[in-house]
Amino acid sequence: MANVVKTGEVPGKGKYHCTNCDQMIELSSGDTMPPCPRCSNTEFTR
Asked: For 7, which DSSP code?
């Protein structure tokens, strides 16, 4: 099972996908995970 990253966490550099709508968010090192810009979901997987 994939690790779930939640809004407000700092998961590290990489590409993350919304668990609701599959919107991709790319974060840099030190970035805080925002809510999904498409559906406002708060959970993502790498």
From this structure: T
Q: How many residues does the chain have?
A: 46
Contact between 41 and 35 under an 8 Å Cβ cutoff? The reply is yes
Judge contact between 40 and 33, C-beta under 8 A. no
DSSP string of 22-46?
--EEEE-TTPPPPPPTTT---EEE-
Nearest to 33 by CA among 2, 15, 6: 6
Helix (H) or strand (E) holding 14: strand 14-18
pLDDT tens-digit profile, the chain (46 residues)? 569 999 999 999 999 999 999 999 999 999 999 999 999 999 999 9
